[in-house]
Design a protein that fits this description.
single chain; 193 residues; Rossmann fold; 7-stranded mixed beta sheet; 33% helix; 22% strand; binds guanosine-5'-triphosphate; binds magnesium ion; GTP-binding; metal ion binding; septation; magnesium
Length: 193
C-alpha cells in the first residue's frame, strides 16, 4: 500500500466525536503495552503519529487516523492494565464496548497479543466476545523480534489453540518491520483492493 496521506484526526472520548463520513475502519485492540500504537506508526511509516510509551495505559481515548482519504485506523485504549484505578479501567472497558458494538464502518478488528506469552484469559475472553457479537477479528502477534525465528511458528500454533482457531494470525515486529508487508496485503485483501 502506498501511503499518500496519513493524518491524525481526533482523540475521541464520546461517540458523537467519532468521524461520521462512513470511511471503512480497522481497529487495533489489545492489552495495554502490547504495541498497538507502535504498530500503527510502523504501518504508516511515521515515528510518532500515535503516541507510544514504555508505561502501559498510554492511549486513553479512541484515536482516529485517516489514510489516503480512503480508510481509517482506530487506536483503542488497552485493556487489562492493573495499575489504573478500578473506575478508570471500567471507563476504558465501556469505551471499548460501546465502540465495538456500535461502530458501523468497522471492517475488521486487529486484536494484538504478545508473541512471547500464551494469550491471557482476558485476550481469549475479548476474542470470544467479539466473535459472539459478529465481529471479524484477525490476530496480530506482536514483538516478534523478541523471540527466535524457530519460536514464531510455535507461538502461532499456541495462539491458534488458545483462541479457537482465528483464521488470520500474523506475527509482526514494529521494531524490525517483520510482518508489516504481510499485514498490508491482508488489509488490501479486506478492502478488496
Ligand atoms: P497502550 O496505549 O498503553 O494500550 O499501549 P500500546 O499497546 O499502544 O503499546 P505501545 O505501542 O505504546 O508500546 C508499548 C511498548 O512496547 C513501547 O515501549 C514500545 O517501544 C514497545 N514495542 C512495541 N512494539 C514493539 C516491537 O515490535 N518490538 C519491541 N521490541 N518492542 C515493541
Ligand atoms: Mg497505545
Amino acid at each position: 500500500m502506498k501511503i499518500k496521506s496519513a493524518e491524525f484526526e481526533i482523540s475521541a472520548v464520546r461517540p458523537v466525536q467519532w468521524p461520521s463520513d462512513g470511511l471503512v475502519e480497522f481497529a487495533f485492540v489489545g492489552r495495554s503495552n502490547v504495541g498497538k500504537s507502535s504498530l500503527l506508526n510502523k504501518l504508516l511509516g511515521r515515528k510518532s503519529l500515535a503516541r507510544v510509551s514504555q508505561k502501559p495505559g498510554k492511549t486513553q481515548q479512541i484515536n482516529f487516523f485517516r489514510i489516503n482519504d480512503r480508510f481509517r485506523f482506530a487506536d483503542l485504549p488497552g485493556y487489562g492494565y492493573a495499575a489504573v484505578s478500578k473506575s478508570e479501567r471500567a471507563k476504558f472497558a465501556k469505551m471499548l464496548e460501546t465502540y465495538l458494538t456500535t461502530r458501523e464502518p468497522l471492517l475488521r478488528v486487529f486484536q494484538l497479543v504478545d508473541i512471547r506469552h500464551s494469550p491471557m484469559p482476558m485476550d481469549v475472553e475479548t476474542y470470544r466476545w467479539m466473535k459472539s457479537i459478529g465481529l471479524e477479528v484477525s490476530v496480530i502477534a506482536t514483538k516478534s523480534d523478541k523471540v527466535g525465528r524457530s519460536q514464531i511458528a510455535k507461538a502461532v500454533r499456541e495462539i491458534r489453540i488458545a483462541m479457537d482457531g482465528p483464521e488470520f494470525i500474523i506475527p509482526v515486529s514494529s521494531e524490525k518491520g517483520e510482518g508489516i508487508l504481510e499485514l498490508w496485503s491482508h488489509i488490501e485483501d479486506l478492502m478488496g483492493a
